[in-house]
Amino acid sequence: MPRAAGSVWLRFRPRQAGHTLPDEVRPVLAAADLAAEQTAARVRLAALLVIGLLLAALGSLSGVYRVHIAVIFALNAGVSVAAIVLARPGMFRSWVPWALATLDVAVVVGIMIYGDLNERMLTSYTPGLVVSWAIFVLLGLSAMRFKPALVLYLGGLFVCSIALVTGFHPAPAVSTGADFARLFDIEHNAVRLSLIALTACVLAVTVGRARGTLVEAVIAARRSANLSRYFAPGLVPLLADAEVEVLKRGRRQPAAILFADIRGFTAMSEQLEPAAIAEFLGSFRLRATRAIERHGGIVDKFVGDDVMGVFGVPIATSADAANALAAGRALLAEIDAWNRKRRSAGRRTVSIGVGIHYGEVFAGVIGDGERLEFTVIGDAVNTARRIEELTKTTGWAMLVSAALIEMAGPSLDHDLHALPALTLRGRKEPARLFALDGFKLLRRCPECKSDGYPHDARSQPLIKSDVILARSAR
Questions:
Q1: Which of 25, 66, 164, 321 could cross-link 408 (Cys pair, CB 3.0–4.6 Å)?
Q2: SS3 366
Q3: Which run of H or of E encompasses 260?
């Protein structure tokens, strides 16, 4: 019981709870509040129209039309229209629901007291009037706003107002209708008011739970959005929904692996300030991410100036190899366009090497304790890394394995240049590698001792523009 009471109390502390909400969550909740207010206003007007049509039909059947009923209907219609107008985005304020709730109580209690002179009855009989049943409709409408405190306020205001009205004129103890009067004595009216109060409390608890669920959903969506900043969008649903133990078990599957590396980055970083290095790496990573994700891949990791892209995780398709090849071309095109901007700004051009391989990998979460990482590992990953390393010595900007070409399809053969048998680092068997025609690395400048970083005066375009246009048209 103490724990349940504490939970309910926390639900009804909007001011304190609001301070604990992240700044990104509050605008979302404000938009939800506005939408709820608009819905409640429309439902209110629809309910009023239904009641109005019912009264008109009953009046037509009986042949009796009462002026005070038309006045009451017009008064409620005015409040309903005001609720719709005040719920517009440009006019809505936080005090609007509270003002409308107060106005509703005033209208209902006023009808109880003055409606056709209280139907010629004592005020102690007012809880038996039809208008008293509208209280539950109004409580339901207040619940639609997802504000538990508002429900409690409305219910408490109804109970206090009606208690004051009925308390001034208790039912006579003795009369010709003694049995009827006993139904509306203080005890019976107290029970009726207690039912209204209990209904308000139950609705408030229900609304509080719904409000808490809404807040948790918004926070979860925010966390998912934050995850997408650190993980590829394709992995976010998998990481958010799957259990950690399932992710740790992982699975073996085929995938295409792309590695790209900036040439001469170490020497360049020694000449730049940390802020300039961060800006340079950010620009490179932006272009690498754009090229990889546009072709259905995910960025597995960045390590310094290296990028690793994966195609086929978490769902492998027959197009993964072709997509990886297209992403490699797109990345080289991105670097070529970047180099044109850098030349016009008087900066050094950038040279990269790309290696791509296709094979079986293990995809899952690795790590112990609190530090976990979703990645792909296996011989295919190591092979792709070593293929990329060969771009430093072969003079080609992008090298791909025979396994990738086989999976990509025979239509690419005319675009390939078969290389002599080369041995990858740490391997005994030579590998069959292919280079794409037109994708040449810059020649190393003999005056530059920066491990292949091109000298400004000898910088040339990494990819010819006519080659890019011809291939993008295919």
A1: 321
A2: strand
A3: strand 251-262
| Whether the Cβ atoms of residue 326 and residue 412 lie closer than 8 Å to each other | no
**What is the three-class DSSP state of 465?**
helix
Residue 297 lies in a domain: yes
Of the listed ranges 8-17, 40-49, 139-148, 228-237, the least confidently predicted one is: 8-17
Residue 249 sits in the same domain as residue 211: no
How many independent structural domains does the chain possess? Answer: 2
Q: How many CB atoms lie within 10 A of CB 147?
A: 25
Helix%, strand%, coil% for the chain, nearest 5: 60, 15, 25
Co-location of 394 and 416 in the same domain = yes
Which of 228, 254, 273 delimits the end of a domain?
228
Handedness of CA 464, 467, 473, 474 (dihedral sign): negative
Whole-angstrom CA distances from 353 to 189, 435, 442, 472, 473 are: 85, 11, 10, 20, 24
3-state secondary structure (DSSP) of residue 415: helix
218 and 252, same domain (yes or no) = no
What is the pTM assigned to this prediction?
A: 0.51
pLDDT value of position 162? 84
When mean pLDDT is compared across 179-193, 245-259, 451-465, the lowest value belongs to 451-465
What span, in angstroms and rounded, lies between the C-alpha atoms of 348 and 363? 38
- For the stretch 376-381, contacts whose Cβ atoms lie closer than 8 Å and that sit 24 or more positions apart, written own/partner, are 376/255, 376/257, 376/300, 376/310, 376/313, 378/252, 380/255, 380/257, 381/257, 381/308
What is the helix (H) or strand (E) element at residue 114, kind and residue range? helix 96-114
Same domain, 296 and 147: no
Q: At 355, which amino acid appears?
A: G
- Residue 48 makes CB contacts below 8 A (sequence gap 6+) with 73, 76, 77, 80
Structure-block tokens of residue 379: 């011989």
In a domain, 91, yes or no: yes
Pairing relation of β-strands 398-401 and 352-366? parallel
Neighbours of 299 (CB within 10 A): 19
Residue 364, domain CATH: 3.30.70.1230
Same domain assignment for residues 218 and 167: yes
Domain range for residue 429?
242-472
Q: What is the pLDDT of residues 218-231, one digit of tens each?
A: 777 776 665 555 55
Q: What is the pLDDT of residue 45?
A: 86
CA 4 to chain centre: 31
